[in-house]
UniProtKB/TrEMBL annotation:
<dbReference type="InterPro" id="IPR046342">
    <property type="entry name" value="CBS_dom_sf"/>
</dbReference>
<feature type="domain" description="CBS">
    <location>
        <begin position="73"/>
        <end position="131"/>
    </location>
</feature>
<dbReference type="Pfam" id="PF00571">
    <property type="entry name" value="CBS"/>
</dbReference>
<feature type="domain" description="CBS">
    <location>
        <begin position="8"/>
        <end position="66"/>
    </location>
</feature>
<keyword id="KW-0129">CBS domain</keyword>
<protein>
    <submittedName>
        <fullName>CBS domain-containing protein</fullName>
    </submittedName>
</protein>
<dbReference type="InterPro" id="IPR000644">
    <property type="entry name" value="CBS_dom"/>
</dbReference>
<dbReference type="InterPro" id="IPR051257">
    <property type="entry name" value="Diverse_CBS-Domain"/>
</dbReference>
């Protein structure tokens, strides 16, 4: 069985909830990613922020990214998958919630990686990728 750990990108890092958005954007640039999980002081995931969140919800809204905290943009229930879950379960989670990035956590519930669209495209068959794209981008 292929697991979430088999298809994820390793080395994902959290941004602390109290970190400013300008620093979060710098971390995204340094890591060449478009999203970062947001974690509390115990390294437990509280949400995820994207580069688009920073632009639309902060900069375009006239706020100063050096004053707004990453935790301020966390909304809703964070979605994640266990590293030992099947790849099919990971895809189902992404499809059901129409999300393009899925944090992967270990047995201690701490971040161990991230599954992105690129990971899906790299590891699955063309038919699986087509089904995934259709379901994630479907409009209700």
């Amino acid at each position: 069985m292929t697991t979430a750990a088999d298809i994820m990108s390793q080395g994902a890092q959290c941004v602390p909830m109290n970190e400013t958005l300008d620093r979060a954007a710098q971390l995204m640039r340094e890591q060449n990613v478009g999203a970062l999980p947001v974690c509390d002081e115990n390294e437990r995931m509280q949400g995820i922020i994207t580069d688009r969140d920073i632009v639309v919800k902060c900069v375009a809204a006239g706020h100063d990214p050096s004053k707004v905290r990453a935790g301020d943009l966390c909304e809703g229930t964070p979605r994640w998958i266990s590293a030992d879950a099947s790849a099919e379960d990971a895809l189902a989670e992404m499809e059901t919630h129409q999300i393009r990035r899925l944090p992967v956590v270990g047995g201690d519930k701490r971040l161990v990686g991230m599954i992105s669209e690129a990971d899906v495209a790299r590891t699955l068959t063309d038919d699986q990728v087509a089904t995934f794209v259709e379901r994630v981008y479907a409009t209700s």
